[in-house]
Automatic annotation (TrEMBL):
It comes from the Eukaryota. Residues 31-319 form the Protein kinase domain. InterPro entries: ARM-like, ARM-type_fold, CIK-Related_Protein, Kinase-like_dom_sf, Prot_kinase_dom. CDD domains: PK_SCY1_like (cd14011). Residues 598-612 have a biased composition (Basic and acidic residues). Residues 726-738 have a biased composition (Low complexity). This is SCY1-like protein 2. It comes from Galendromus occidentalis (western predatory mite).
């Protein structure tokens, strides 16, 4: 809250200050006025403010002249200055050239101020080189302007732009008449724009009359430190007069605002200095670059005919710099085709490394960003853009680069775009705020995983662990992990599959424990590849999960899923000795963990059971282990041998009591008389007592006899139904033969008959035929029931007992035989 209150107070103070400064601004309705930038124009009376156009939200710069700043002049002089300044703005508005300041809103006047709007600007050149005219109003410049330092390439290209503007004016038969730092504006891109046409004159021939009143207010006079000799002495000017002023400008920007001579805004001093210029010493040019000294001396020649014109100045070797040439090409991109543009973009990165950050960010980058709309050119400009991003701060990236670059993140073709972005993914992550990573970078990564290019996929998998900590839980579980797992299973390339597993292993520590166990550890057995590299990557994931303090694998998962999956891998033929040792070592480690954890659990369980047993009256039931169980099974069954086994152990009091109880129960069972059923039971007379009737109801029943009777009834029913079923089945057969029903049943049922026994595996033979027919397709088991014993299908049935069982006289013999 304290932070927000400070922001609020700062905003309120800024608005109040601007309100006091911008009272009566006629453009306040069309533009949102921002911070103060600097000053410009004759005597630096125009104030520059950052602004945004309300209708289009375009950046602009508002130039404001407060009339009260001219209160030191008389009313007539004040009106003269105002008309003089209005005339200069009107001429500036009519001129259109890339090197001339562009006016976006014409001059408007209110009772208190003049104002007009132009393209977005930074400050004037006079604010940068600190070239102030005596008597100019003192202003407090912003910190950014105070720290602004001109680069050599920026100076060269700025001078070239001024020369281009002069070439345009001279071709239009005009002379500027007041070239100085006060009349040059540096726009937001770092380009130098010519302005201040207050003293501009039109040529009627080779020269023009150049009149100025030395007694007029200072704002209406040229800067005496930059005026040409013929303008001061003869009151005439030519295009060469502007070139002289340009030579002084070259000297000034290389000398921190100083000029070859200082007139202190005095005309008599100017004349004395101009006489000295006839023999201008070369030693004064030692502070200039060596390549510029001879050319500046020509520009400062007293004889105007010796000075080079604007076109010749542009061709000087001093301006033939690779940086100047590159910046000039960037300004003329709209005139070039794609092949020429690509050639320029390829050679741009070495030039950007030599340029200051300010020029790269505000001068070069806008030219590159204009090509984002053409996907075919993006691969050529991305190396330069990424190089500029490395120079910028996070705030500069978000404000100046990210808004235009969001379009690039959506491109999937050409694939070189994704490749270049993925190579610098760590840089982009460090510059982008978290919401930009979620909204722009992460979708680009998803598209890269689905791309058909192996290089793109593997590069994406290598960069994922760098920013997975910024991915939200839902996106990680529902989008990122499924895509990586799908690519790992679907791909046919071993290298890509290994990259997927390595990527999963690296992001494992950023996952929730149960997400790692359920979505990664449980998924690994689905990988069917048995290449040694893939197996080692799987082993690596298990090691990370097993040893990481945040994760870990539970003993249940180890025992039921992981170890059963790893054990068969030991005998894989693709493993060498070292890899085999790693797999075995990991399995042993997992087994040891399972053993230790479960032993600890069992020890705690036994301890708790003993505590419960000691606190309760009942003794616990001890479960035998495997050795004790199989020792009892293998021992002799007689009591003597069993007592020997028991005697070898130390028995507790509870065990001894339990053994005594068991022996008592066994002795009771042995001494108990067996139950003998009475087959001759008959109904008791009704005169017997009620107690006898109840005993007869509860008398023992012969279960063996009941079972035999039941089986006999079932067998008789099946035998009776046998012949009708055989006839039905034989009618359905299409074989032309007549069955022989003249079977000697006495011979058949004889115990010595060879047909006494029948097996299901034998085929059925028809009497009277020499050949054996094929087994019927009907199912004998379904018709006859299960006559076989549980021993198998080849067991036989004794048919001779059919007749014997049907005889009542033989039934008792069978029962007696079964009992014995």
């Amino acid at each position: 809250m304290d932070y927000l209150s400070r922001i609020k107070s700062t905003v309120v103070d800024t608005v109040s200050n601007l309100s006091s400064v911008l009272t009566g601004n006629p453009l306040s309705g069309q533009y949102e006025i921002g911070s103060y930038l600097g000053s410009y124009g004759p005597g630096l009376h125009w104030k520059m403010f950052d602004a945004i156009k309300r209708s289009t939200r375009e950046e602009a710069c508002v130039f404001l002249l407060e009339k009260k700043s001219l209160d030191r002049y008389s009313k007539s002089e004040r009106d003269y200055v105002l008309n003089f300044l209005k005339q200069g703005v009107a001429q500036l508005t009519r001129l259109r050239h890339p090197a001339v300041l562009t006016v976006s809103h014409p001059l408007e006047e209110s009772r208190e101020a003049f104002a007009f709007a132009t393209e977005a600007c930074f400050c004037s050149l006079a604010n940068v080189v600190k070239c102030d005219r005596p008597g100019s109003p003192s202003v407090d410049l912003p910190e950014a302007v105070k720290e602004y330092k001109l680069h050599e390439v920026e100076i060269k290209y700025g001078l070239a732009q001024v020369a281009e503007a002069l070439a345009f004016l001279h071709q239009a038969k005009r002379v500027h008449g007041n070239i100085c730092p006060e009349m040059i504006v540096i726009n937001k891109k770092g380009a130098w724009k010519l302005a201040g046409f207050d003293l501009c004159v039109t040529l009627t021939g080779d020269n023009a009359r150049y009149d100025f009143d030395t007694t007029s207010p200072q704002a209406c006079q040229p800067n005496y430190d930059f005026i040409a000799p013929e303008c001061a002495n003869d009151h005439s000017c030519t295009p060469s007069s502007d070139m002289y002023s340009l030579g002084v400008l070259v000297f000034s920007v290389h000398s921190n605002g100083s000029t070859p001579y200082s007139t202190r805004n005095n005309f008599q001093t100017l004349k004395a200095c101009l006489d000295q210029m006839k023999t201008f010493p070369k030693s004064k040019l030692q502070g200039l670059p060596k390549g510029a000294q001879d050319h500046v001396r020509l520009l400062l020649s007293y004889n105007s005919k010796l000075r080079p014109d604007a076109h010749e100045f542009l061709k000087l070797p001093y301006l033939e710099d690779i940086g100047v040439k590159t910046l000039r090409d960037l300004d003329n991109l709209y005139q070039l085709d794609k092949v020429a543009k690509s050639y320029i973009f390829k050679g741009l990165p070495p030039v950007i490394e030599k340029l200051p950050k300010r020029m790269s960010l505000y001068r070069v980058l806008p030219c590159l960003a204009a090509e984002y709309v053409n996907p075919e050119m993006v691969p050529f400009i991305l190396p330069s853009v990424l190089l500029i991003i490395e120079m910028t701060t996070k705030e500069e990236f978000v404000a100046s680069i990210l808004p235009d670059m969001q379009r690039v993140f959506t491109y999937t073709q050409p694939v070189h775009i994704m490749y270049l972005l993925l190579q610098k993914m760590d840089l982009l992550i460090s510059k982008c705020p978290p919401e930009a990573v979620r909204d722009h970078l992460l979708p680009m990564v998803y598209r890269s995983l689905e791309c058909n290019s192996q290089q793109i996929q593997e590069l994406c998998l290598g960069t994922l662990p760098d920013f997975c900590h910024l991915v939200e839980y839902g996106s990680m579980k529902n989008s990122l992990l499924p895509k990586v797992k799908k690519l790992c299973v679907v791909t046919s390339l071993t290298s890509t599959r290994v990259k997927c597993l390595v990527c999963l292993g690296k992001i494992l520590e950023h996952l929730d424990k149960w997400v790692a166990l359920d979505d990664v550890i449980a998924w690994l057995p689905e990988i069917k590849s048995r290449d040694s590299a893939v197996l080692m990557a799987i082993i690596g994931i298990y090691k990370v999960a097993l040893h990481h303090s945040k994760l870990g694998i539970t003993k249940e998962i180890l025992a039921c899923k992981v170890i059963p999956f790893l054990v068969p891998l030991v005998i894989e033929g693709s493993l060498n000795l070292s890899q085999f040792n790693q797999v075995v070592s990991l399995i042993k480690e997992m087994l040891a963990q399972v053993e230790n954890e479960h032993r600890t659990k069992l020890e705690q369980t036994d301890t708790s059971r003993e505590d419960q047993a000691n606190s309760s009256a009942t003794s616990p039931i001890n479960s035998p282990n495997a050795d004790e169980l199989f020792a009892e099974l293998s021992s002799d069954t007689n009591p003597t041998s069993r007592s020997k086994v028991v005697s070898n152990k130390t028995l507790s009091l509870e065990d001894k009591q339990r053994m005594v109880q068991q022996e008592d129960a066994m002795s009771m069972l042995v001494n108990q008389a067996p139950l003998t059923p009475d087959l001759g039971l008959q109904a008791k007379p009704q005169s017997e007592s009620r107690f006898a009737a109840q005993n007869s109801k509860t008398a023992a029943k012969d279960l063996t006899s009941s079972l035999i009777n039941s089986n006999m009834i079932s067998l008789q029913n099946k035998t009776n139904n046998l012949r009708p079923r055989q006839q039905t089945q034989q009618r359905q057969q299409q074989q032309s033969f007549q069955p022989n029903y003249n079977i000697d049943t006495q011979t058949l049922m004889s115990p010595t008959s060879p047909t006494n026994s029948w097996s299901k595996t034998e085929s059925w033979s028809v009497s009277g035929n020499n050949s054996t027919s094929k087994q019927s397709s009907t199912n004998w088991d379904d018709n006859w029931g299960d006559w076989s014993s549980p021993a198998g299908n080849k067991s036989t049935l004794d048919l001779s007992e059919f007749d014997t069982l049907t005889l009542e006289s033989k039934k008792n013999d069978i029962l007696r035989r079964n009992k014995s």
